[in-house]
């Protein structure tokens, strides 16, 4: 049985980012369930602001590699702060580049198990951003896994080491990771299920007098 593979991306490059801490909490829980996780540092990709002229001149190698990682993965998890009710420019630019180049526009997103998490000092925790991303990813063909996780009080729910220590918040993350792994295990082994269905459909049915139909 294949293990699920995930690409993890954080929409914040800020030092000490609460969302980076939250993403690490998700990563550790998925890894404990035997999932293979790769954290992609979006800031380190140094992707230019997308323009069609740049793409036509030369597709950035980092954009090609990001798309390849997403295509190969079972799913992905995004942690991102909320800027004016929206995801950050860093995240949106990376997603835009990942829909360009060779292969289908949404090949890195279609039928992928996807979850979005957020945290912020305010009581809403970035919920508007999470809902915006859910809609965007669904439109791109991703299988968005809920419940929505938007944790308020970011300054109080992590300890000095960055671990998520608030019991209520940890319970929400646990619930999401459980749902994500439930669907991702199926998705990672979907080729086997498809093969079984194909073989069943190809079976010859014995008709009357020994003829096959």
UniProtKB/TrEMBL annotation:
Q: Which GO terms describe its molecular function?
A: FMN binding; oxidoreductase activity
Top-rank taxon of the source lineage equals Eukaryota
GO cellular component terms? cytosol
Q: Which residues form the NADPH-dependent FMN reductase-like domain?
A: 6-154
Q: Which Pfam families match?
A: FMN_red (PF03358)
Output this protein's name.
Answer: NADPH-dependent FMN reductase-like domain-containing protein
